[in-house]
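Fold this complex.
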Amino acid sequence: MNRLSALIIASLASISSFADWEVNMPRGVSPTANAAYDLHMLIFYITVVIGVIVFGVMFYSIFHHRKSKGAKPASFHESTTVEVIWTVIPFVILVGMAVPATKTLIMMEDTRDSEITLKVTGYQWMWKYDYVEDNVSFFSKLDNKSNEARQLGSKIDVKKVDNYLLNVDNEVVLPTDTKVRILLTASDVIHAWWVPEITGKKDAIPGYINELWVDIKKPGVYRGQCTELCGKDHGFMPIVVRAVPKQEYVKWVSLNQKNRVADKSE
Amino acid sequence: MSTNIDHIKEEHHHQPSGLMRWITTTNHKDIGSLYLWFSLLMFFIGGFMALIIRAELFQPGLQLVVPGFFNQMTTMHALIMIFGALMPAFVGLANWQLPMMIGAPDMALPRLNNWSFWILPFAFTMLLSTLFFESGGPAAGWTLYPPLSLQGGNSMPFVIFSLHLLGASSILGAINVIATILNMRAPGMTLMKMPIFVWTWLITAFLLIAAMPVLAGAITMLLTDRFYGTSFFTAAGGGDPVLFQHIFWFFGHPEVYILILPAFGIISTIIPAFSRKKLFGYDSMVYATASIALLSFIVWAHHMFTVGMPLAGEIFFMFTTMLIAVPTGVKVFNWVATMWRGSMTFETPMLFSLAFIILFTIGGFSGLMLAITPADFQYHDTYFVVAHFHYVLVPGAIFAVIAAVYYWLPKWTGKMYNETLGKVHFWMTTVFVNITFFPMHFVGLAGMPRRIPDYAVQFTDFNMIASIGAFGFGLSQLLFVYILFQTLRQPVTAADKSWEGAEGLEWTLPSPAPYHSFDTPPKVD
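Structure:
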């Protein structure tokens, strides 16, 4: 079985070295996304093992117990012992999955002790970001190049557009190594905020405030999209998070606090 | 054989002929055929919509349709396939098979039966007509989540009315099924001696009666929110958008099992027939089906892990959802044990059933992955989910329907389909279904959300493959239609017991089965 999983990993790894043929969930850069990745792989391998055993028995039977090979049907058609065994074993496996899953879930839902709070509001079809403590606030929508290219009959080669559909006019900037609480709500219909590498998604619902937390460990640019159908331009409201070291974040805040104030006075 | 045909002709004399025969018929076989043909038509209409979706998604950028129309296609494709193709197909099979399998002359409530079918064409005409409205058809997804669905155009009341009609039709059908099974079994056929397909339909019928009125309630509240000033689901008026999701999925999850339990019954009938061996663990199959049905009412919120439920709620729904794997596993193990040391042959119905077991189980595996709440935060509303439910509904439910049609076609028509063409149909369908839906796992995991008309360029390759597979799958089904019509043109040659290993009362009847299945109830010991 180990050899088999090694084979699968090797083949998956060799495929995923071509970015366009990505077949798996990206490994995360925040504890919650990492934990989701680990659980995903754990359950995946368990199902692979079960699948190999069950389908193995089935194919053995298909090849050996066929009439054309002179197989005579046996007459057994029940066995309480066997049936109890294959009820109990899956149950035990499920308990084995449930324990790590529950631990991870409790960890993910614990938003206490966060250092900064980012409020995200979904609109048709853009996002508004409010840095609650730092008094920065702006809208973020699909960048103009993608927006021109995505129109029906635009004749623009979307492959030449930088980060087509995954680029915005105003990026969210977050500090690394900081527990950030993200509050989610919406002003019109339900949206969902998702950046796979830093966090799973959560819905932004009118009248509700949902919570998420992230703690990004690696500086970089992370991209995601709205993941709850929110009308005709649902596919065109991306999310871009730029994670920077804390000092840089402080600089960005001071710069943008001023800029935004200046914007308002215009 | 010829005496039998004369026999049928004799019984026809009091029937109106032509179109009026079909409109006024109260015969379970006529109505079964109407359901099945209707379902086939809807399968192609819904499939055509799927091909529009796949054509647009063939490459990034928008080439064919605007996003609003794309959303209408995804919404309508789901509604047509679920309510128009799959549910009527299973009701059609129930109509044909239940009376024959339990030794009854007909369904218990024939006039009701006529009504429950003839509601459908009107309901779907109304539903489809919304596509020609100036404001277009429904575009908020088949789940009709408010507030988005409340923004819809003029189509909304028409969609809701047609859903009400479909619900009424399903409930009438379910009442008929329950009344037939509970009252019209041949003497000696106790509940635990019923064919497994009859059991699965009995349980499905109870699910229908429990679930459809809940949908009716949810969509009626949507209607009053939109037109009568209520605010059940509008936050601004003190309502709760998430309430709709809870009600909808309280219907929606049992609905999923309404689509799969009769399929389980079909597979549990066909696997033993071609293994020439009794179904392994009949009792545990019945209990597993009943457990799945009961569990289906306490797992609904796994469709909405991302709405921000309390932790305790998330844990509860994760555990109950995982628990479904136990009875489902029992079913799969029992099928494999049925084949074990059997004497198998591989005619088309068996091939489709074997593919069902493998591919449905793959859908079950991804279902188990989706049950794990923390991982679901990543999977939710991506193509991984699309891959999952298409695996359980296409090579799951649809394969079972196709297998059932091939299996019982000689009994229904007295004519045998062309086995070679049937196998070609099987291989094309199975290869293309995997080319279509397997890559969706990959793009979903890599981060492609569902219900988007256009995507980032890194998802291009797998989307192209999926689109090619979809067109191949669609074209392969034309072969199915050809096989059906070719079979109907054959002379009557099928034996009463068309398959060597087939068991059940229907095979004691002549092929084609007489108009009124059992005039005198057979004795079952």
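The mean pLDDT of chain B is 94.
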